TrEMBL record:
Domain Thioredoxin: 37-180
Any one GO molecular function term: flavin-dependent sulfhydryl oxidase activity
UniProt keyword Transmembrane helix, yes or no: yes
Keywords, in A-Z order: Disulfide bond, FAD, Flavoprotein, Glycoprotein, Membrane, Oxidoreductase, Signal, Transmembrane, Transmembrane helix
Region (Disordered): 538-586
Top-rank EC class of the record's enzyme: oxidoreductase
Cofactor(s) needed: FAD
Record's function text: Catalyzes the oxidation of sulfhydryl groups in peptide and protein thiols to disulfides with the reduction of oxygen to hydrogen peroxide.
Phylogenetic lineage: Eukaryota, Metazoa, Chordata, Craniata, Vertebrata
Name of protein: Sulfhydryl oxidase
Gene: QSOX2
Length: 659
């Protein structure tokens, strides 16, 4: 973690060195009120835990999935009598949301295998799990890790190596993983899964031990026999064996004409071929479980972690969908730096350069603050797992492309000037390197390879990102990650920008000139609203989620006209916040330490606390610290001279007595 913090500090220092200085910079007091403490807090971002809850996709006691957290994952997987398959996911990740039904179905399907191998999940988006996900070296979501039974030393597990993540594929890789155990570390409840030689079948035919013996004949590529063995694991009075590639003459003698087939030997010695409807795993297992005297054993499994969940009551915040909210951008930045970036223990080479470039762009043209909690406004979802972080990222990226186009001078001296693709390429590299949803980053990279090189002007960069955003919306429409209250439709909608929409010969068409004007206005400084920002009280809380709407749908209070709800932006209407000399407002060290910077709040002349390593200190607090420091220093100096003088007097007296 220290390495990650150092990398963040290095990137912050690089961005600080490149910060522009306006010739007409305001006074120091004004600078202190208006300076975004992004660079100040960047070094602390990796260490500051921040706040903000996440919605779990799996529920303990409701799903067959073992729900783990920071307090249970190590205890569950260390020196366990069973193997584990753990999915490390993030509840905001669209692919994770879409995959959740498959994971639940897998856990239900192999529920009877729990004494040998267990299916679990851990949500890395939950604040309490951030540190443990870093410890397990989780960078992308979802990540699947196998943990062998009786593993004593800490391990990050073995990565899932299946060709895909379909239920059948994962189930078969679970079997392969179990078979990779040696005889000494194999789960004791797991019977041998390997085949027996055909010669051993003859000894089984004379079975008289009071149990059923089921012999599954199958070919070498079949998993049916092993699946049935594990399905019958918690049942007693039955033994299941499998035979591969038996001699055809021998199979004919037993009446086996096709594979797979099951030959059943009864406790009384009678035997014969099982007659079932279809030669499928479910048919074999169901038939064998229904045999007389075949019943479940009393297997003692560890109690599933069932932490009592007290979901935080999320209060709906009314918002104007035509506005851009600072709270959304700052909350997204908080998660981006304090959670996603912090998953990387150290950064070097291309990764470090990507971070430096991204931080430079943010510091130059974003004008937003790094806060220590999450508060969605325009990015609220009807459920906590919907929208949120991914919505805020799109808003942040659109803001960066628009600000770079409208204020190109902000990038002077950075090496990005006169390059219309600079911001897009920086976003592209950040997504490819750090974005947690691997599938999402791969999709974005495909779009970038296809057409990003065609961008020749800053206006084209703005429109490129808008087109790709709508393309993503179209692809995800109807996906499980789509918020039903905020359907993914082409944006901007006709009611937000009537001039953006046209019809040509009866078909919808975009007026890209009007779209460009709309994007510059919507993501411009004039449209940035600080209502609900970290340093302001929530003006409107309560109400219910909307009943429908497009991607950026909002609510307008029925009691107040729309105009009264639009808070005036704290930022200058036509220019970006000034970037004064950082040395006058703060001191930044590689250890992440810094001095506090105050910020003006709305139209009130009140200084408020700003985040400082996850805590809030006002200028009064800092002044008291300085006074106490000076007072304590003076006190120590006085005590030093006092004892120094006394020591000299004692030496004089001692010398006279000796004489």
């Amino acid at each position: 973690m220290a390495a990650a913090a150092g990398a963040a500090a290095t990137a912050a220092a690089a961005a600080a060195a490149a910060a522009p200085r306006s010739p007409g910079a305001p006074t120091a007091a004004a600078r202190a009120r208006r300076l975004p403490p992004l660079l100040v807090l960047l070094a602390a971002a990796a260490a500051g835990p921040g706040a903000g809850g996440a919605a779990r996709l799996y529920r303990a006691g409701e799903d067959a999935v073992w729900v783990l957290d920071s307090g249970s994952v190590r205890g569950a997987t260390a020196n366990s009598s069973a193997a584990w398959l753990v999915q490390f996911y993030s509840s905001w990740c669209g692919h994770c949301i879409g995959y959740a039904p498959t994971w639940r179905a897998l856990a239900r399907d192999v529920r009877d295998w729990a004494a040998a191998i267990r299916v679990a999940a851990l949500d890395c988006a939950e604040e309490e799990n951030h540190e443990v996900c870093r410890a397990y070296d989780i960078h992308f979501y979802p990540s699947f890790r196998y943990f062998k039974a009786f593993t004593k030393d800490f391990t990050t597990g073995e990565n899932f190596k299946g060709p895909d993540r379909e239920l059948q594929t994962v189930r078969r890789t679970m079997i392969d993983f179990l078979q990779n155990h040696t005889d000494t570390d194999r789960p004791p409840a797991c019977p041998p899964l390997g085949p027996i030689p055909p010669s051993d079948v003859l000894s089984l035919l004379d079975n008289r031990d009071g149990r059923y013996v089921a012999i599954l004949f199958e070919n070498n590529s079949s998993y049916v026999g092993r699946e049935v063995i594990l399905d019958l694991l918690p049942y007693e009075n039955i033994v299941v064996k499998r035979v591969l590639d038996a001699d055809e003459a021998f199979l004919e003698k037993l009446g086996v004409s096709s594979l797979p087939s099951c030959y059943l030997i009864y406790p009384n010695g009678t035997r014969g071929l099982m007659n079932i409807g279809k030669p499928l795993r479910s048919f074999f297992s169901s038939y064998l479980k229904s045999l007389p005297d075949v019943r479940k054993k009393l297997i003692s499994l560890p109690e599933k972690p069932n932490k009592e969940e007290n979901p935080e009551v999320v209060i709906w915040r009314e918002f104007d969908r035509s506005k851009l909210y600072t709270a959304d951008l700052e909350s997204g930045l908080h998660y981006l730096l304090r959670v996603e970036l912090a998953t990387h223990r150290s950064l070097a080479g291309a990764e470090l350069q990507t971070l430096k470039d991204f931080v430079t762009v943010l510091a130059k043209i974003s004008g937003i603050f790094l806060i220590n909690r999450i508060k969605w406004v325009g990015c609220q979802g009807s459920r906590p797992e919907f929208r949120g972080y991914t919505c805020s990222l799109w808003k942040l990226f659109h803001t960066l492309t628009v600000q770079a186009g409208t204020h190109p001078e902000a990038l002077d001296g950075t090496g990005f000037e006169d390059d219309p693709q600079a911001v897009l390429q920086t976003i592209r590299r950040y997504i490819h390197t750090f974005f947690g949803c691997k599938e999402c980053s791969e999709h974005f990279e495909e779009m970038a390879k296809e057409s990003m090189d065609s961008v020749k002007t800053s206006d084209q960069a703005i429109l490129w990102l808008w087109k790709k955003h709508n393309l993503v919306n179209n692809r995800l429409a109807g996906h499980l990650s789509e918020d039903p209250k905020f359907p993914k439709v082409p944006w901007p909608s006709p009611d937000l920008c009537p001039a953006c929409h046209e019809e040509i010969k009866g078909l919808h068409s975009w007026n890209e000139g009007q779209v460009l004007l709309f994007l510059k206005q919507h993501y411009g400084s004039d449209n940035l609203v600080d209502t609900y920002a970290a340093d302001q009280e929530d003006a409107h809380e309560g109400g219910a989620p909307p009943e429908g709407g497009e991607q950026e749908r909002g609510l307008v209070s029925p009691e107040k006209p729309q105009g009264e709800q639009r808070a005036k932006s704290l930022r200058p209407p036509s220019v970006l916040p000034p970037r004064p000399d950082l040395s006058q407002g703060l001191q930044l060290g590689l250890d992440g330490g810094h001095q506090s910077v105050s910020r003006a709040e709305g139209h009130r002349e009140v200084e408020v606390a700003v985040p400082f390593l996850g805590m809030g200190f006002s200028s009064l607090d800092m002044s008291l610290c300085v006074v106490l420091y000076v007072a304590s220093s003076l006190f120590l100096m006085l005590m030093y001279f006092f004892f120094r003088v006394r020591s000299k007097r004692w030496k004089v007296r001692y010398h006279r007595l000796s004489v």
